Amino acid sequence: MMRMPNLPTVAIVGATGAVGREMITILESRGFPLRSLRLFASPRSVGSRIAFAGGDIACETLDHGMPEKVDLAFFSAGKSISKEWAPKFRDAGALVVDNSSAFRADSSCPLVVPEVNAHALDAIDRPTIIANPNCSTIIALVAVTPLHRAIGVERMVAATYQAASGAGAAAMAELESQARAFAAGTTMDTTIFGRQYLFNVFSHNSAIGADGSNEEERKLLTETQRIWGSTAVRVSATCVRVPTLRAHAEAIHLEFARATTEEEIRALLAHAPGVTVIDDRVQNRFPEPLMAAGGDDILVGRIRMDRSVVGDRGAALFVCGDQIRKGAALNAIQIAEHFLPQTVADNPA
Fold this sequence. Notes:
It is built from eleven helices and 14 strands. By secondary structure, it is an alpha/beta fold. It has a seven-stranded mixed beta sheet with strand order 3-4-2-1-5-6-7, sandwiched between helices. It has a seven-stranded mixed beta sheet with strand order 9-10-8-11-14-13-12. The radius of gyration is 20 Å and the shape is globular.
């Protein structure tokens, strides 16, 4: 497996967006070792400065052409930017972790959630593009994969409750502005979603296909099958937007290959990496977006058997995860940490 230098030169493309800014914060908080950090944004942001490690860094633009040698590049600037620039960075010798949908279906680009299929990274021996899965897929699979490994998931039905953060910083700002407008009795800005978001729930704002499924729902199917390395698992999803700022929630129903018990499921989740169980029936305390916001773990609760599945082969969960962190920025950085020299990875700066 390839290794990056002890102190890689790191670039973030899309540094001023919600995910890009979260990447900067996480790199600093996790003590990610780097020689220098370069931040790239749209031309309108050139020259603006972003705080990092006790100083600040001026934003650059890719319009000036390929930057000097970069060892690691994080992309979070949208599909079109990734398609144009990620291959250029790779061909210039950078390991690229892309947060867009540009390469998720490309069989030459690993699609990785480190808690689930980090082994897919071990075969990489040269600079390449690694795809960050969709946020809903990451949140679901961190919670469900421990059960899949032990019991075997044959079918997963998910209903997602997705926050404004999934549509970026501008969507979060619009939701906040609608709350202020409601309080003031003024007209709400509906530029991003074309409708009132506050006090509303609506189908996910991705394209609807001929079969009636939107892109988000199809991603949960295709990405789950690819990450698990099996087309046998059946996935059905309904994805909606809800008026929360950050952290997605998902109601997940599972059908297993064999009989199980609630006790077995709880024991598996209690020891699962990246999972925190919050399941207090007495106090009616279960995962909530506000609990998950700003955290790294996926919160799992409402753990119960699904009696609509015969033979004790069904279970239901409710999960929440911060879309900006584990659903995007943190997952990308965890992927990159896999390529640090082992001594550095074991003893970060």
